[in-house]
Amino acid sequence: EAKFWRVYAYGNICDATLFWELYKGNSKISNGSETSTSFGSWSGNNCSISETLSIDFLSKTTGPGSYTIRIYGKLTGRSQNNKYDNPNYLGCGDNFWYNNNNSGYYSITFTIPSKNLTVAGATNGNSVSGSVTGITKGVAYTIEATPAEGYEFKQWNITGGSSSITLASNTNPSTTVTFNNYANDATVTASFILKTYTVKWVVDKSTTTEPVAHGSEVANAPTIDPNNLPCGDKFVGWTTEVYAGKIAPTTLYPTAEDIPAVTGDVTYYAVFADYEN
C-alpha cells in the first residue's frame, strides 16, 4: 500500500498515477505506472491519500542480486485553485504528493539469492553437460546427455527443486530447463540403459532370433541335431558370412561358447561341411 501526504487540508482529486522504478544495484532495469480515476481513499483529517497496488516485481527481475523498488505519485484535480469560492478548498493541480518523509518516493529493497542448476548422470560411463551457477528466472538453459559406448539415453528426472524448474522434454537427450522461480537449487539427472541388440541364427532355411544386451554373451543358439543334417554333412560351427562351398569361412566359431560378446546386431549362419573330402 502506498500512502501520500500534501500540505493542504482539502483537495479535489480527479485522478492519480503511481509511478514505479525497479533498480538492480544502481541501474534502473524497468519502470511503469498505474493510473486510477478513483485513487484509493482520501483522509482529510491527516491530509493523506492511499492506494493499494499489486505488481509482480519478481517477474521483472533479471537473476540473483540486490534490487530496489521506488514508488512515487502524481495527482491531478480541478484546473482552478479553489471551489465554491472557498480559498481553503484547493484543487491539487499537477502537484506531486510525497510520502511521510518528504523524500518524494517510497523505497523497498529485496535480494534474490544465487541459485544453481546441477546436471548429473545416474549411470557410470556417460557424460552430461549444462550445469549453471547463478541462474536467471525465465531463461531456458540447455542440458545435454551423451551415452557411453553400448548405452542409450533413457530419460531426464528432476531429483531436486521440482517446484523451481520446468523441463522442455524428459525424453530428449538435448533439451532445456527453465527456472520458474528462485525458490530452490535444482538438480536434473540423466538415466542411461544398455543397448539391446538382435542376434539372428540361420540354420539351413530356418531363422530364429534372440535379444542380447551390449557386452553380453549369446544364450539361445539353436541346437543342431547331428542325425538331421543337410546333405549328410557335419555341423562345424557358426560364421557371420553367408557360407557356400567346401572351403572353411574366414571366421568360424566351432561352438556358440566361442562367439565373442555382442556389440551390435549380428547374424550367425550354421556351417555344414565335410572338409576331409
Helix content: under 10%
Q: Give the helix tally.
A: 0
Give the assembly state of these chains.
single chain
- By helix and strand content, what is the structural category? mainly beta
The proportion of strand residues reads: over 45%
What characteristic shape results from the CA principal axes?
A: rod-shaped
Protein architecture, described:
- The protein is mostly beta strands.
- The chain contains no helices and 20 strands.
- It has strands at residues 2-5, 13-24, 27-36, 41-43, 48-51, 65-77, 96-97, 106-112, 116-121, 126-129, 132-133, 140-147, 151-160, 165-167, 174-179, 186-194, 196-203, 206-213, 234-239, 266-273.
- The strands form five sheets. Strands 2, 3, 6, 7 and 8 form a five-stranded antiparallel sheet that branches. The protein has a four-stranded mixed sheet with strand order 11-9-16-13, with no helix packed on it. It has a four-stranded antiparallel sheet with strand order 10-12-15-14, with no helix packed on it.
- A hairpin with a 2-residue loop joins strand 17 (196-203) and strand 18.
- The termini are far apart.
- The model is unreliable at 7-11 and 78-102 (pLDDT under 50).
